[in-house]
Every structure is written in structure tokens, then in C-alpha cells.
Amino acid sequence: MEYRYTERSSRLVEPAERSTSPEKTRKEIMSKGSSGMEVILATLENTQDLQTILNILYILNELLTVGGGRRIGVFVSKGGTGILLQLVISASKESPPSEEVMLQLHSVLAKVGPKDRKFGVKARLNGALNVTVNLLKQNLQNHKLLLPCLLVLQVYSSNTVNAVSLGKNGVVELMFKIIGPYSKKNTSLLKVSLDTLGALLKSKTNARRAVVHVPVLLYIYHDWHRNDTCHRHILIRKGILGCLKNITNIKLGRKAFIDADGMRILYNTSTECLPVRTLDPLINTSSLIMRKCFPKNRLPLPTIKSVFHHQLLRVPAGGPVAQLYNQPLGVDDVVDESDDNEDAEAENEVEEKDHHAGNDDIETDINKLRPKETHSRPFEELKIYERFFMELSEDFQVLNFDNPKRGVTATPAAPKSHRQIIVPTAQALPLKNHTAAPLQGECPHPATVPPLDLDTINITKDQDGCGDHTHSRPHPGAGLEQELVQGLERVALDGAGPQGGGGGVNKHNRQSPILAAGVAARLGGEGEEMLAEEWAEEEEGGEGAVLQVPDTALLLPLHDPDLYVEMVKSTCSVPQFSEVAYPDYFGHVAPTFREHILERVYGVQRTKIFQDIERLIHPNDILDKVVYDLDIQSCPVIDGGESLKFNSQFESGNLRKAVQVRKFEYDLVLNSDINSNHYHQWFYFEVSGMRVGAPYRFNIINCEKSNSQFNYGMQVLMYSVQEAISGRPRWVRTGTDICYYKNHFSRSSIAAGGQKGKSYYTMTFSMTFNHKDDVCYFAYHYPYTYSTLKMHLQKLEALRTPQTYLREDVLCETLGGNSCPLLTITAMPESTSNDQICQFRNRPLVFLSSRVHPGETNASWVMKGTLEFLMGSSPLAQSLREAYIFKIVPMLNPDGVVNGNHRCSLSGEDLNRQWQNPSPELHPTIYHTKSLLQYLAAIQRAPLVFCDYHGHSRKKNVFMYGCSLKETVWETNISATSCELHEDLGYRTLPKILSQMAPAFSMASCSFVVERSKEATARVVVWREIGVQRSYTMESTLCGCDQGKYKGLQIGTRELEEMGAQFCVALLRLKRQTSPLKLRNHAHLLDVESDLMETRCKVSSNPSTYLLEDEEQSFMEEVDYSAESGDEPDNDPNTADNHLSDSESNKHRDSLT
Ligand SMILES: [Zn+2]
């Protein structure tokens, strides 16, 4: 092929001047595909003739400009980069080097570089870095040459090794010579220099070199901000911020930034940018820098150990609890002594890697996936559990058939749940003598007051004739709210002593809307007197007014306020709670309206972060007033209505401290799980003294998880007492401007598992209250206390019909002295004939448990749905009872629930990590539950289904985790052994049925992979050690659904209870799909579904679904609102950055061609 170009040395050949049409030339080259490019490259490589080289470079410049990415791809693949770089080297050896050749070479390289992934390495190996750098140094005034060289340098710098090497060669300093204050000239040059500098500063060595220039960068940024009024140079401004962003990755850089008043400069410029939406990238990057540089604060606590302490009789030998117990006195566990942020940076990098390496957790040891052969315990030892399975030997010969014997009597150790128990005083708190919350501005309980005797609480109904619930029922036809209003019952709460009766009622009644926070059961001890006086005082003129209790009896058949208080009395709590929260007392009637998943409002997180930064900019605006503090014995000062009142001294409450930051803003600190120093997520507290219409902002400032469903549309729950007494007793999803982000409170390495430089996270929400003199409660999720469970169990008992077999045993006592109920539900045999008794005894077992994690209250609501269905009178329920024997432990962790823990029991450990080796002393509920299962396995009656109900804080919908050897092996690609594996596919049947019938259930979220981190969970241990093939964890979302009938809605108790009922119906369908004959030997049962293979493939092709039961660290949402990088716009395709990039790169192109 021949190229005929006019011999011109200094200008690009104009197409019109060529003797052949350029179109034709291009066509020739293109028609032969890559061979044309090969010819060009071969010529370029072999010719020594300067002019020929130039001519070819002209052609290349033109070809590669027009041809786009594909042509450059061909060029790179044919080795073009290397040839060009060699030419750069040889041209540099000429003296002086031809400026034109260098110009053309760098122009082509600038086009090729960004498309060649190995460009940086090739340039370094060819020795081209220094040639370009020297060229730059010598031509700082030659803008024509400068631009292509800078563009190439920018590509060099994106390689980290190159960046370090270039830094050593003074390129950082060189860039600072080019960049400068606002000027309309040479903006392209400036832009490229800033981007190059930004790339270089990703290296920490280079960042250190640039620290001295931080004031300059800030000055330049401010100058551009001031002068670029038409916002034509957003990219330059962003380039400057990019440099600052990288310098402030190192500690010295952050210090320099603070010293140079960077916070104020970026805060002010950002505030001025706020009205212009196209400036968002600038605001976002500024915000990122400011958050990084924000000085770390100390959590306002003396220690991060839980305020309440439970002395363990036996401390575990190792682990976090042992560490906690062995922590020397006087050690500050709130912050680290030295804030070594360099460590934090290294750690951040590791963190990112972890995100991508999610598969590390899959169990790859095939022996750990196979059934554990030997039973670790001799049968003699297990034999004592026989008494929990009386139904397996029951002959019904001596019984009154209509009144089945209940097991409670068979377990003398168990206190009857309705027995009134005096809270023991022997276990007074060893560390501190905790005081109850103040009442009406005064502290009724001095530190020395002995714990309250809950039996002094007494609720009496008003004497005006409608005191009896059963006679004041509303008409069934009335609307829901009307019913409630009509049914409002006048109930007075009386504190007149243990047998107080109704005598003192009138004296103690108070005007109904005026509610002392927590008044319902706050009485007792010396406080009682005070309260009585107060009431008497306020009662002047009140005509027998009383606290109105909404009658929820019709709508909540399992609820009874009086019974609830009775239950509370026998509940043992470490803080020895003496109060009852109104929502638990009144009950919750699920609203009939829909509660949508919130659309996230644009810029919410940014606004909140700016408000946080203002604390630093305008420190005088900050009140910093402690209004609630469990750590301090003396009562916080409550002034004349200037502050909200907080309280959480009731079952499941866990607010530790409240600090008024601004007039309507409060920082809240959650208490740690008892005997631990972390696990802050669950919250439940009471607020009163609010102003109507004021925009309150609440910040929970010691959250730990790196992301939260609060970033994806989940709202907090609120219960208003005023609403309740107006006939709407319910929790509602509420709060606006909700978001979750990393804050400036540092987290010590003790709190962060040894990692230094970590921070806490803030969950913030805003709230405007509608009622004066209201008492409102906020919770993470619908509360469900242990006392509520006990109440529900008593009410369920009343649902029993002669056909129902229900037994309630006490499995064991917990460390805190609460009993752990075990239910047995099945149908009575139809007769006492041998056949019927035999059928009765041989029904397959279904074993269910729930609420091992106290913060997952949704699991209890699902369990409530299951229990109510099982005890129901529907034919389905009867069939179900006839089909199975249900063994249910509805609350595996009563102590955690009572004491407001999020995750642990009183031993400070996650009970769902103790199933391999539970200790009877430390984990009694797990030890005995596992023993029940071991007993069943030993007598060849292992359950057909085992399911442990949980809640999931990071995912939507309801779904299951199961265990499959094969699916685990597929996930890990251990191909060698997989062919020998035989596995029954029955484990998929139940979730499959559920996905077909339960609207909240999602098969796509299910996973059957066994993870290493889960080897000690109920699901895996019951599968492997007990041999239950259908062993599951059922996870219910705390947020809402993104599929099915409830798509777009937040989950409520109605949906959760429905899920529990649907689970029962699914079991019935499972029964139908499994032949009764085979049921007895279900381990060999094969109930393959037609579409099994299809779903299996779906799961294995979607690796994210195997993640993870409740450690959601690795779970990534589709939309990244990542709390970490916040609104960092770099990867956002919709930022102004990208809109502008076209015109900017056109400018470059113009100047090059
Ligand atoms: Zn859980």
C-alpha cells in the first residue's frame, strides 16, 4: 500500500490536499480490517525517516480521533502502544528532540493511553516516564506541547507504581507550578494538571509531599468559587477538591486542612453552592472531605460497658466476655489512647477487599458438611428429657378425656407463669445501685432505696359501673376506631399498696390527657407517696377523671392490660424495672392503612451532615445539655419545658443517655447488651414534654453496623398515648429525613474488635408531634416483651378446645431467673382405641423456636401468628394438629428481651453461636433445647422440620436459610467430590411451598449454603448433629417487601403474624406431599418437585443469595447509598461531571487536531 502525502513538516495534512481521497484511503485500510493497521505500524516501526514517521503520526492522530474506541482497540492489540513508546525514547535521543515529533507522539499516546489497560506499565518498562517529565519541565511555557504531555502524564499517574516514581522526580511540585488562581486562559491545561495531581496524590508518599500546599489549594478553590460565577469550570473546581480529598487521606493532610481553616472554607463555599443543583458534585466532595477531617469526638460516656451488670457465676474461659471481665480498672474503653489513623486507612482497604471476597465464608471442609456420626451424649443422660415428651407415651386411659392433663404439674421446678413473684433483692446490682427515672422533676428513689416490690402495683378499674371489660363491649358493627372510642374503658391506676383495692381510686385518678410518663406502674416504694400527693394536687377540680384505657379486647383477643401487669410482676430484670410502658400495657392494634417504604429524599444525608459540621463551625449554638443519663446517680435537671423528657426504664427499654444538642435536637446513646460493650441497634424509649409542631431531630449516635435499612426506606415506630386513648392504640411507622451514616464519634479498638480508627454511625430521624401533653414511644421495631409472651400464652390457653392437646412446660430457668416456656401442641386422639393412640404418638414432630436475638422482635410476631393459628378452630388448624406434634420454644432468650439487649443473653454472648457446645450454666435455654432434640434423635424421633425464626436488618421480604451439602459444594467448586454426594432434595420443598402461598416470602432470597461463620447456629447444628434435613432459619425483614403483594410496603405486625400462619398452612401442604408411610422414615424421603432443577440453577448462578443469615456485612444493596462514602459522586453516572465531560474533552481534541 502506498501513501501519498504532500511533504509538509509542520502541519497536519489537510484531506483536500491529498492526491487520493482520504475517504478512499480510510476505506482501503478499513476494508482490510486490522491488516491496514498492521501495515501502518510496521512502517512506523521500521522507518528511520523523520518525515515518514511524522506523516504516519498525522494519519494515526486522525484515524484514532475519528474511529473511536474500536479502532484504538485494534491499534493497542497490534502492539501500537509499545511502538509509540519506543519512538518516544528514540526521539528523545536526538539533540535537540524534534518538537513536532514529540507533539505528535504524545497526541497519539494521549488517545491510546486511556484505552490501554497496561499503558502505565508499558510506559515505565520502556523508560518513557522520564522523557515526558523532562519534556514538560523544559516546555512549561509551550502550551501547545504542554497539553498532550500532561494528558499522557495523567495516564501514567493512574498507575500507583508510576505515581510514586513520578513523585520522586518532582512531578508533584511541577503540577503546583502549573495550577493557579482563577484565569480564563488555559483552562484545559489547568484541568489536566489538577487531574494528574489528583491521581499522583493517591499515593501517600506524594500526599505527604503536598501537605504544605494545602493552604494554596484552599485559596485557589475559594478563588475559583468566587470568580466562576457562571459555573463554567465546575470540573476545575472539582479537580481542586479531588486533590484535597486525596491529601486528607493522611493524618498530616487532615491536620494541615484544619490548620488552614479548611472546614470553614469548604463549609461556606458549599453552603453557597446549595441552591445550584449542578454544583452537587462539589458539595458532595466537600462534604466528604469535611467528614474525614472532622475532629473525632468521644462518646459522652464514662465507659462503653453496659450500665447494668449481671454477675456471672461462671465466666467463660475466653472470648469477649472474659476480656470484659479481665479489663483492668481505670482503662478508658471509650476512646483509644492514640488515634492512629494511618492504621485506619490500611484497614479500610482491607474492608473493601472483604466486600468482594464474600465466598470466603462458605464451608469447604467436606467433613464438616457431612452428618456428625456419633451422638456426643449417652442416652442415660438424655433420659431426663423424657418428661417433656409425655405425648409420646400418653395412653389417656385414666384421664377425663375432655380435660387433658397439662404438663406444668409434671415439672415442679417451674413456677406457674401467673404466680406473683417478688423481685428478688438478693441480687442487688454489684457495680452500681441503679435508680429509677425521676418523676416530675424530682427523684423519688435515693440511691440507697431497695429495689421495688412490683407486687405493690395495682390496677383497679373505675367504680362508675363500667369497670368490667366483658360488659362494655362495643357493638360489633361499628367501625374500628368508633368501636374503640365507644369501648374506652375507664381504668384508674392505683398505687395504694399491695391490697389497695378501689378505696383510694378517686384520690389517685387524674385528668386523662395529663399523663405522667410511665405512670401506669411506676408506683411503689417511697415514690408511691410522692405520686399520690402530686395526683391529689393536680386533681383539684377534676371530676373523678381517670386514665382511659382503650378497650382492645375485641380487636386483640390475646391482650389484657391487667393480665399484662400481672405478668410484668413475675418478670425478672437486671435493672429491676418498676415501670410498664404504655404500648405494652394498652396493646397494639395494627393500622388498616398502608405504610409505604419511604422514598429517599435527595440530599437528606448531606443536610444532616452539614448540620453536624455546624457544631464545629458555630460551637456557641450548641447546648450540650444532658437530659437523661443512666450512668449518673443524681437525677438530671428537668427545667420548665425547655427540654424533652426521656425514659426507658421498662421492659426491653434501652436508652442510656440523651443530650440536648440544640433547641430541638437530641443525641441519644443506646445501652450495650448486658455484659458486653457493644451491639447497639435495638432501641425502645419514651419521650414526653414535647412542643406541638416543633421540628425535633433525634440522632442515635452509637450505631455500629456499616449500613442500615434506614437508608432504604425503613421508618422508626412510634406509639402515641394520646392517640391510644383516643381509640388508636397502635405503633405507626413514622419519622422523616431518616438516614444512617458514619459519624465523628470514635470507636475504641476495644469496642471494634481490635480495629483502630473506627467510628460509630448515626441513625437520624425528624419528628413533629401532634399532641400536647403526649407521651410517645419510639422503637426500632414493634416491641414484643417477655411479659407480652407470657400474657399471650395464658390467653392462648383459653382458646383450647376439647380437641386440642396443649401443654406448657418450663424448659429451664434463665440466668436472670426467668422461665423459658416450652409448648406442645397437637390434636387429642379421636378415641382411646389402640389405633388412635398409636396414630397420636407417632405423628411426626415439628420443632419451632424464635427470638434467640432479642432485637429481632419481628420473629416474635411471626411466632405469635404461628401459635394463634395452631390454637385456632379452623379445620385447617385441626388437620394440622392431627398431622403433627408441635414442639415450640417461643422465646429462646427471655433475659435478652427483658433487659433491652439487641443480640446477646446475660452471658454477653450471641446464643445462636453456642449450639455446638452450649453450656448448661451459661446458655441454659440452648443447652436444654438442644438436649430435647438430642433426646428425639436418640429415640429415633428426630423432627421432620426444624425452624428458628429470626429477623433480618439488611434485607427485604421473608426468606429461609437451609442446609444443603450439594449446594454448598457447588458454590465452592469442589468438583472432585461432588459426584459422589447423594442428597435428598426435600429441603427445598417447604420454602418452595411458602413462596407460592405467603405473599411476603421470597424464594429468590433463600439460600441453602452452609457458611463457616454459621457452623454453631441452630440451623446448621440441628442439620448436622441431629440429622434434620429440613432445618431452617426463617428470616423476616425489619423493613418491608420489594416483591409480591406487599411490594413497596413496610412490614407490620399483621403481615408478620400472617407469615406465621402461612408457615403452618405450608406445613400442611408439606404433609400432603409426603406420604404418611414414609413420614416415619423421612430421612430417606424424596419429594422432588417438577421445577426443582430450575430453581437450583437459579440459586447457584446468583452467588449473592447465599449470604448471610444475620451478619449482613457482605450484603450489598442494588442501590448504593453506602453510609461510608455517602454521596460521593465519583461513580455516579448522573453527576454534572459526566454531562460536562463531553464538551471538555472536545476542547482537548480541538487543541490536539
Ligand atoms: Zn437473628
UniProtKB/TrEMBL annotation:
Residues 1-31, 332-365, 1108-1153 are annotated as: Disordered. GO terms for biological process: proteolysis. It catalyses: (L-glutamyl)(n+1)-gamma-L-glutamyl-L-glutamyl-[protein] + H2O = (L-glutamyl)(n)-gamma-L-glutamyl-L-glutamyl-[protein] + L-glutamate; C-terminal L-alpha-aminoacyl-L-glutamyl-L-glutamyl-[tubulin] + H2O = C-terminal L-alpha-aminoacyl-L-glutamyl-[tubulin] + L-glutamate. The keyword Cell membrane does not apply. Keywords: Carboxypeptidase, Cytoplasm, Hydrolase, Metal-binding, Metalloprotease, Mitochondrion, Nucleus, Protease, Zinc. Residues 1-30, 352-365, 1139-1153 have a biased composition (Basic and acidic residues). GO terms for cellular component: cytosol; mitochondrion; nucleus. It is found in: Cytoplasm, Cytosol; Mitochondrion; Nucleus. Residues 782-1071 form the Peptidase M14 domain. It is an enzyme of class 3 (hydrolase). Belongs to the peptidase M14 family. This is Cytosolic carboxypeptidase 1. It comes from Hucho hucho (huchen). The lineage of its organism: Eukaryota, Metazoa, Chordata, Craniata, Vertebrata.
